[in-house]
Amino acid sequence: MSNKIPEKSITVVGGGASGMMAALSAAMHGAKTVRIIEKNNALGRKLLATGNGRCNLTNINCSDAPETLQFFEHIGLLTRVEDEGRVYPYSGQAAAVQEILVCSLRDLQVKVFCGMEVESIDRKGDGFLIRIRDHEPMKTDVLILAAGGKAGPQYGSTGDGCRWARTLGHTVVSLMPSLVRLVSDLSFFHALKGVRAKGRAELMRMNQVVEQEIGEIQFTEDGLSGICIFNLSRHYKKGDIIRIDLFPEFSDEMLEELVISRINESGGGSIKEILNGMLNKKLVAVILKEIDLDEESKAGKLSREEILKIISILKGWQISIAGTKGWKEAQITSGGVELSEINSNTMESKLVPGLYFAGELLDVDEKCGGYNLQWAWSSGMKAGKSAAAISKKI
Ligand SMILES: Cc1cc2nc3c(=O)[nH]c(=O)nc-3n(C[C@H](O)[C@H](O)[C@H](O)COP(=O)(O)OP(=O)(O)OC[C@H]3O[C@@H](n4cnc5c(N)ncnc54)[C@H](O)[C@@H]3O)c2cc1C
Asked: What pTM was computed for the model?
């Protein structure tokens, strides 16, 4: 008779960034029976789309970045740091990150079940019963939920993880698309499609600034885009507006002085001609229309009041926002499994022993720049390590 103590099995549901990391971390910490169930035909499909196909995998400004970089170095990925601390694979290919994770899972003998869609999960004794569409159910002692949120459903995550978390007794903070374009009903956006301007964008609620960003603002046929708008979208609530300062380097007084001196030197030109020398032409046309000023008006004939109106819109253009784009365009989910119900050191549920969480499924969302994948990596690492520790305790 063998006197070997049997180990508990660990099952990770969801083979995205956090799930792959959780399974690797469990195996690296000595767990012997680790498997991943993923509904897509391959692991890490969303990873391939990250960073415009280049995968901005972390940011050196994150406190956990050194550990992540050490991990990727250890499994053989060469990386490089670019602007604002963003880290990319040296090859510039997201596929390099996905492939190296898949190869490491193979090397550590993690069992991978792709093309298997989990339908429901229930507590069964001290473990869990996982029901899978068109397959036999699977039992597991330890469960790591890493099925993502609802952002980018075309890559597989449709909110199932939050549904299971609720069934297992957890609270889920309502889910909203985030890092996403803001949509406006204003008709002038058709004329601005493709325009980019550097400036300050402020998210305003009841005349108060909720959040602000400086950077490139992109105008689309139906609203606003660009990294700074994405970052503001994390805080968006119905009724909020965006205020844009197209000249953040100038105070109102400096800009007024500049416009007046240009008018004085213009020798009878129109206001449109003056502003075209300072700003994208399409923006000039829309802005002048917004303040009811004929673009052909002779600049020298403008009243002080009209000049102040121009300064006011250039420095504080208020744009009403109807909402955000939907899940398909969102990069992440805001909301998710309530953090107070999770032990942040181990990622284990405080309500259900043996249940762990990782990644976007939790109520964590970060700004652009590698911070969201960093959360997937660090939560996955912790969940896998702690799951491995309890898998050895019978
Ligand atoms: C276009 C795009 C670009 C991005 N770029 C960046 C970037 O450059 N840097 C950055 O930091 N972040 C980026 N992000 C965000 C980043 O991709 C996510 O934060 C990260 O992928 C979350 O990892 P996750 O493992 O928690 O979830 P996911 O990656 O969504 O993985 C969840 C997995 O669970 C599987 N699953 C879901 N339901 C089931 C089920 N019922 N049965 C079985 N499997 C299931 C899914 O198929 C999926 O593979 C980007 C996101 C998008 C959409």
From this structure: 0.95
